[in-house]
Specification:
Elements: E1 2-10, H1 12-29, E2 35-41, H2 45-52, E3 59-69, E4 77-82, E5 92-100, H3 104-114, E6 120-128, E7 141-145, E8 151-152, E9 168-174
This protein binds inosinic acid and magnesium ion (MG).
Length: 176
């Protein structure tokens, strides 16, 4: 089975406009405050880098790597592969994700980080597939809403590949 990623869903210019729009909302909301940005690895490394360079509020940046799985007798578990080194107690935290799909990962991650007593936690995602949600999760900063398709590029991968694409493409599977 082959992979085809030639269908561009979101061109580079549209992504750039989205980053500027989201950043200006964040700059407005956090004016006069300091922000701890936590990028969720690996997918969010591209969006995080672009986003923080549009911010005008003082910001520190850290990264976390997590994965979630649904076991037979559980609604979901969070595995922390890499934790942040920042103490977020009393701080305003912005979680930055590449895409929200079922919402499982971010709802568990937010819950876990709440236990560390930050002043606030908000979620910012580049892309959003609300049709696939199983957990109620509404990102405070929602980049671009997309249909239920598997996408790659702008940090998003298929089996580790295509993260470097400047635009977002749809993955289709071919017989050849
Ligand atoms: P969740 O289902 O909201 O917990 O999303 C888990 C993770 O699945 C996301 O952070 C992405 O890494 C990955 N993911 C979901 N949809 C896509 C997609 O269309 N392309 C690439 N990765 C995806
Ligand atoms: Mg991810």
């Amino acid at each position: 089975m082959g992979i085809d990623v030639s269908e561009v869903l979101i061109p580079e210019s549209e992504i750039k406009d989205m980053v500027k729009r989201v950043a200006s909302d964040i700059n407005r909301d956090y004016k006069g405050q300091e922000l701890v940005v936590i990028g969720v690895l690996t997918g969010a490394f591209v969006f995080t880098a672009d986003l923080v360079r549009e911010l005008t509020v003082p910001v520190t940046v850290d990264f976390m790597q997590v994965s979630s799985y649904v076991g037979e007798n559980s609604t979901g578990n969070l595995i922390i592969k890499k934790d942040i080194s920042t103490d977020i107690e009393g701080k305003h935290v912005l979680l930055v994700e590449d895409i929200v799909d079922t919402g499982r990962t971010l709802s568990m991650l937010r819950e876990m980080l709440m236990g560390r007593n930050p002043a606030s936690i908000k979620i910012c995602t580049a892309f959003d597939k609300p049709d696939r949600r199983v957990k109620t999760l509404v990102p405070e900063y929602d980049g671009i809403v997309i249909p239920d398709k598997f996408i790659v590029g702008y940090g998003l991968d298929y089996n580790g590949l295509y993260r470097e694409l400047k635009e977002v493409c749809v993955v289709s599977f071919t017989d050849t």
